[in-house]
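fyi for ur records
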Amino acid sequence: MEKLLTFLRRPSNVGVEEFARRYLSDHAALIVGSPGVRRYVANLMDLPQDILEPLGFNAGNWTIDAVDEVWCESLDDLPDISRLYGDVRMPAVERGTELTAQGFGFDCFRVTERVHREWDYAWRHGEQSPVFKIFFPVRRSPKISHEQFVDHWMQSHVPLALKHHPGMRFYATNDVTSSLTRGAPEMDGVSVLHFLSAGEFQERMFDSPEGQAIIGADIVKFINFRASGAYVAREFVHTGDGNA
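which gave:
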């Protein structure tokens, strides 16, 4: 399966509640009904983001109101992203952006996903999933290449994360291999973590102060922390195995 990650922004004249309605109804229906889509997860960033701050995670430099995760057998099934996101020739809300059919700005990336810890849980199709979900879009340290970034991520950081994040129920890394939209921000990878609840994240993100220090020391070796960020999301799974 190949995967697309798309970061969406609401126009300035669309409120948070209206964006959520359009995103979870009209936009989701467009993605689910698109030929070639095998699995789709909608992620809405309308929760308070300051819950991340006590553990040292910043809210990030990018404006992100939602994230689409789209899987297909092959990107050849999706010859033009306009089939998913509307006519990309529409005038942009702001310079350097594309627009969805609903008028949302977006940046779309092709990624290589690797799942390092799986978690099976039940949900009803299209309803909010019972997870506390965090996205970590990151840029690499300017001292290393993208290939060196990925190598350190997989060989060093992933084993440390699996060891020192005891409350983490699901863990996937997404290596950004290319950008499919004009003017997209520089991004090297996106980590996705699931916890059972916000409380579990706060209490069991790290196994100990020593473990937190180990993770922090490793991060600065390959990630530009100031140019990266963290975002809490509500997850809605629309297609895929296991839906009721």
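The chain has one domain: 2-237. thats all i got for now
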